[in-house]
Structure formats: C-alpha cells, structure tokens
C-alpha cells in the first residue's frame, strides 16, 4: 500500500515538473473562472479576457511542449507562447459590451487552431505517418478517459462536500460547490490528462496494438451513418434536377456533416488500410472521396445561392471556407499518389489562419464590406421607389425594408446602433 502511494506521488511530481506551464495555465484559468463568478457583472471584463487567454494557453503550451520534445528549445517556445497570449489579451475588448459576435468567432477559431496545432506540430517532418496516427489516437483515447475520470472525480467530491455539510451541519456557502467544480473541471482535468500522457511525445507516438473497438465503431456505427447521409443527399440532388430548383441552404450543413464523419472514419481505420490488397478499408478510402465530389457541386450551389442574394456574413464565410477546404482535401487524396493524412489537420489550420489574419480577405473584412454594399443597394432601392412614386411603391418599400432588417441582423451590435442613430 505504501509502495503504491509512493509510486502515485512520484508520478504526480513528475507531471508537475515536466509540464509546469500547462498546469500554471490551468490553475490561472480556474482562478479566472472563480473570479468571474464572484465579481459584479460591470467589472468582469478583465477576468473574462484573462480566463479566455489562460484556457487557450493550456492547449497552446501543450502543443509547444510536444514540439520542444521533438526539436528542443523549450524555453524559447514557451516564451513565444506567453508573448502570443499576452498579445491576444490586448486584442480582446476592454468593455463587456465590446464582446460582439466578431470576437466570439475570433475566440472560437483561435481555440480550434490551438487544438489543431497539438495534433500535427511534432510531425512536420516527412515519413512519420504511423507515429502521427498513433500519437493522435492516444491523444483521443486520453481525452475520452480524462472526461470520464474528471466527471467521476468531480461528482464524487461534490457529493462528499454535500454529505459533510448535511451530516455535520457546516452550512457551507453555495459557492464552495461552484468553485470546487471550476478547480476540478479545469485544473483537475488537465492534471489527469497529463498523467495519462506519461512522459509525453515518446510515449504517445509509440507503436501499439490497434484497438478493435475503433474498427467496430467505424464499421458498424460511422459507415452506416455515412450510407444514410449519402443516400439522403443523392436523392435530394435528383429531386433538385427533376424540379429544376435551387438547393436549400440547410443542405450545406448535411454535406459538411457527411464529409466530416467520413474523414473521421477514414482516420480511425487508417492503419488497417495496408492489411491486405482487398481490405474493405482500402475500398472505402477510394470510394469515399469520389462520393463527395458531386456533393461539393451541391454544396457550392447552396452556399452561393445565399451569398449572391444576401451577401457575405461571418457564418457564410466560414461555411464557404470549409467547402473550399473540403474541395482541397478531395483533390489532394484523389490525385496525389503519396497522400498523407497529416494534410488534413495542417490544411485546416492554414485555412483557419487565413480566415483570421489575412489582410483584406479575412472573414471579418469580407463580411463587413459585403453587408455595407447590401445596405447601400437596399437604401438606393428605397430612395428610388420614393422618387418614382409608382403604384407599387408601397409594396416595394415594404419588401426593401424587410431585406434591410434581415441584413442589419447580421451586423455587429455597435454598427447597428450607429446606423439607427443616423436614421
């Protein structure tokens, strides 16, 4: 018993000394979340910014740690991570009202990019295909186990506090349950995840037996779902051709769902691809990308139907970007003779980075210019209808005002308020 306790304590010490920056970020995020919950709403902006940056820092520092275990230069990489997080803190608005939809997209996309960075950054070199797969498979399994362990631990500790409170009449304040949840959900989950990762990169990329459960999950869950999706989409495509009508905008989400589930299925069974010449995985890998190709036409038609009528908004921009990314994936895996699965996260990372920071063509610049053009067009129609004084003017004005309201609903809050003041 004593030996087991010492072994557990030793592993905990190893994690603390091996991943100090990641645990520091998790601790700061926990403290920030508690401060947000206990501070007046008018004064929480700085805590919100602090907590967002600390949460981003968990995945970013883990990615940089994995990279440092491959190339060294740990101190330099950690310093660059701190500089990035500091800069991101000052990009965020100083007032709570400044957190518009634009910043929600910036935060969400940046969080996605930091997690994508974890998936590929130690494997930028060539000829590490199987190690790349093993690394991401182990990360996926560790995340699942972390979620289960954290849920059990948090529920157990909360129940223990409740039992002490009720049985011994301590009359704990309600915030003790909330604060305990934040600490265990953020710091506790990070610590458990790092325990599972053991010594880091060498342990994560180590060859291991293929989990049969992944093959079962793909063969009997994901592939039947894909067959359902593709059947619906192809029948809908036939309906469009017969009725000669434009596709509904909602169909784009189903095409993207089919594509994402299919790519996930291919990634899960990737090591089985070369088992034998007639492997069902090899057949599925070839057939899948050819089934997507006609659906991409449907996807672009649905997207541009909305864009040409109402212009670009941030959501439409990102859906179009995902469609372009999907097109690049299909072209790459159909025509490349030495295709590598590393292309999937790396290309998505590059597309996401483009959407955030590329001058003039980033999501926010494009959406702003597009909606301004839409507004000018509608105002010109309204002005013309007033001047011409036709019988149908009233109806024309009503339709134009409705379109104006639709376009204004996509504007950031501060832009809408400025427009209303001008009116």
Globally, the shape reads globular
Please report which band the strand proportion falls in: under 5%, 5-15%, 15-25%, 25-35%, 35-45% or over 45%.
under 5%
Q: Structural class, from helix and strand content? A: mainly alpha
Order of helices and strands: HHHHHHHHHHHHHHHH
CA radius of gyration is: 26 Å
Largest sheet: none
Descriptive overview:
The chain is 80% helix and 0% strand. By secondary structure, the chain is mostly helical. The longest helix has 40 residues, at 129-168.
Write out key terms for the chains shown.
423 residues, mainly alpha, disordered C terminus
List the helices and strands and how they pair.
Elements: H1 2-18, H2 20-38, H3 45-71, H4 74-91, H5 101-120, H6 129-168, H7 175-197, H8 201-204, H9 212-243, H10 251-268, H11 280-310, H12 314-335, H13 343-357, H14 363-388, H15 393-408, H16 413-422
Helix pairs in contact: 2-3, 2-7, 3-4, 3-5, 5-13, 6-7, 9-10, 10-11, 10-12, 11-12, 12-13, 14-15
Task: Provide a short characterization of the protein structure.
The longest helix is centred in the middle third of the chain and has 40 residues, at 129-168. This protein has 16 helices and no strands. It has helices at residues 2-18, 20-38, 45-71, 74-91, 101-120, 129-168, 175-197, 201-204, 212-243, 251-268, 280-310, 314-335, 343-357, 363-388, 393-408, 413-422.
């Amino acid at each position: 018993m004593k030996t087991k306790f010492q072994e557990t304590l030793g592993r905990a010490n190893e994690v603390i000394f091996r991943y100090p920056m990641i645990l520091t970020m998790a601790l700061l995020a926990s403290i920030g979340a508690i401060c947000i919950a206990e501070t007046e709403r008018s004064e929480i902006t700085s805590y919100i910014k602090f907590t967002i940056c600390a949460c981003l820092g968990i995945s970013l520092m883990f990615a940089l740690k994995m990279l440092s275990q491959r190339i060294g230069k740990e101190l330099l990489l950690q310093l660059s991570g701190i500089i990035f997080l500091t800069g991101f803190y000052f990009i965020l608005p100083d007032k709570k009202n400044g957190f518009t939809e634009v910043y929600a997209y910036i935060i969400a996309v940046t969080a996605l990019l930091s997690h994508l960075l974890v998936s590929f950054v130690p494997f930028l070199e060539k000829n590490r295909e199987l190690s790349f797969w093993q690394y991401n498979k182990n990360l996926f399994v560790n995340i699942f186990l972390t979620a289960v362990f954290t849920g059990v631990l948090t529920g157990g500790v909360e129940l223990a506090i409740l039992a002490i409170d009720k049985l011994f009449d301590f009359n704990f304040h309600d915030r003790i349950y909330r604060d305990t949840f934040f600490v265990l959900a953020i710091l506790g989950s990070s610590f458990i995840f790092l325990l599972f990762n053991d010594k880091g990169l060498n342990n994560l990329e180590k060859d291991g037996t293929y989990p049969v459960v992944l093959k079962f999950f793909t063969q009997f869950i994901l592939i039947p779902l894909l067959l359902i999706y593709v059947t619906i989409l192809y029948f809908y495509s036939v309906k469009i051709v017969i009725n000669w009508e434009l596709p509904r905008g909602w169909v784009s989400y189903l095409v993207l769902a089919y594509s994402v589930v299919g790519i996930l299925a291919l990634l899960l069974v990737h090591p089985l691809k070369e088992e034998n010449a007639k492997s069902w995985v090899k057949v599925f890998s070839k057939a899948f990308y050819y089934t997507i190709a006609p659906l991409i036409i449907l996807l672009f038609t649905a997207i541009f139907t909305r864009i040409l009528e109402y212009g670009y908004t941030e959501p439409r921009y990102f859906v179009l970007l995902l469609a372009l990314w999907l097109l690049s994936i299909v072209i790459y895996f159909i025509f490349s003779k030495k295709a590598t699965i590393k292309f999937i996260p790396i290309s998505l990372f590059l597309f996401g980075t483009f959407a955030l920071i590329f001058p003039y063509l980033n999501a926010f610049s494009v959406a702003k210019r597009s909606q301004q053009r839409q507004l000018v067009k509608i105002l010109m129609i309204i002005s013309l209808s007033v001047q011409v004084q036709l019988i149908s003017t009233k109806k024309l004005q009503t339709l134009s005002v409705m379109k104006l309201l639709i376009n204004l609903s996509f504007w950031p809050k501060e832009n809408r308020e400025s427009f209303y003041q001008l009116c």
